Amino acid sequence: MMMMQLSETSKQKNSLFNAMNRFIGAVNDMDQTILVPSLLRDVPLEEDREMGVLKSDVEEVDMYSYYELLKSIRSDMEWGVRCASADEKLKESMKVTRSHSSASTCSSMSSSSTSCSEEEEDEEEDEDLQKQFQFHLTGLQGVLSKLTQQANLLTKRYKQEIGIGGWGQ
Length: 169
Fold this sequence. Notes:
Mean pLDDT: 75
Strand content: under 5%
Radius of gyration: 23 Å
Number of strands: 0
Distance between the termini: 35 Å
Helix content: 55-70%
């Protein structure tokens, strides 16, 4: 029988699964703390320098917008993205592009002296996929880390706004 360990080892700390759990936990904490989300309306983010780094291109964004955004991202992570147009955009952005295509090199050679083998193509593709996976995994972990910080800061700011800034710390 397997039991889930609560403490993270140094290797586990950098896992995608743990990054996702930290984000979902921070959003759940935010959601449980913010009992009246409408109090976040029209409260600007500019007051908090730390959250300013995480702001989008939209000029007038309030805390309520971030609250809704974080909840939406959590929902997408837990249940998947349900929007068909978003799925199409994702498929287009995830197309495997290779900077050096051995297939095009092979097609330019005469068919009688083709020296490209399927094994070489598969090896190159596997290397490209591994590099792409590592790149995107690192990026996803960075984004999840920032989103987790954002959820924690939003929770902290809400507590300050309603006058319970020192609670639960």
